Here is the input.
Amino acid sequence: MPAHDKGNKLLFSHVEMVHDLLSGGFVPGAWLADADLESLERKFASYVSPDLRERLDDLVWRVRWKGSRWLYVYLLLEFQSTVDPIMALRVMGYVALLYQDLVSAQEAEPGDLPPVLPIVLYNGTDLWTSPVDVSGLLAASPPGLETYCPQARYLLLDEQRIAAQEQGPRTNLVEALFALERSRTRADIVRVLESLAEMLGDPALAGLAADFLTWLKRVLLPARAPAIEVPEVNSVQEMKTMLAERVQEWVAPWVEEGRQEGRQEGRQETGQQYILDALGAHFTAVPEAVRETVLHTKDEARLRELLRRAVTCQTIEEFQAELK
Here is the structure.
């Protein structure tokens, strides 16, 4: 299983992540108004083969619906970093196994099987082209056989194309995860981590915080900054402090890259963008006037000096004075 898929499985084994997935506006449907999200609990497959059980364990959740009525809604979470052309077929198989498991364990009876909401989380950059219903995988049926064709649909959550929240503090764990996976600069990562550290500050979330650290160190940071050696940290707060203290080290590879790219392609835009990224990583907000001044600076030597000052200035006001 790819590292990204394993990392998502790790995070969504925590009830807080599933809670925020359902409450954060990502999942449509009026049924959520009557769902008791505080009742969320994991469902483990009890009889399927070990390889299939691995696919189900930690990914299936159930929740009470309409108060005390134990009508279960199962959430089958499937994680993808690449487009799978037969995803609908796989999901149909997982749902069938889940129903068999419920009947075998005498947790449900034929005629009273609970609804299932299969969710596919997709993080790839390519457009998802696979049908979201198994009927889209079938050839045209001869007249009279349409009734017997199976239908099984899943909910696709395409992280790269979900409307991004405006920059600012985040209060939803899943939105923060999606924002980190959409990040393309170090500044983006630092801004989201500031909110994430606040959300994970509760000692009761120590387990989730530890798994987020594992995901950051083994999945996100190697993909975004492969040349940077990440030191051992033991908490989200330490990660936040490390990033703040090592902004200059993070930016240093960009400096040389920007200078080389500028010489080779004759573009000042490279240096301008690195300055703005460094400011975004160093300070909470970058005034629009500062942004505009940087974008209108063309001299390469001046851009190098501004990049150095963007890293070493203690306040954004000090950097503004440098622009005058």
User: Anything to note?
Assistant: Residues 206-224 form the longest helix (19 residues). The longest strand covers residues 35-42. The chain has three domains: 3-158, 165-245, 247-324.
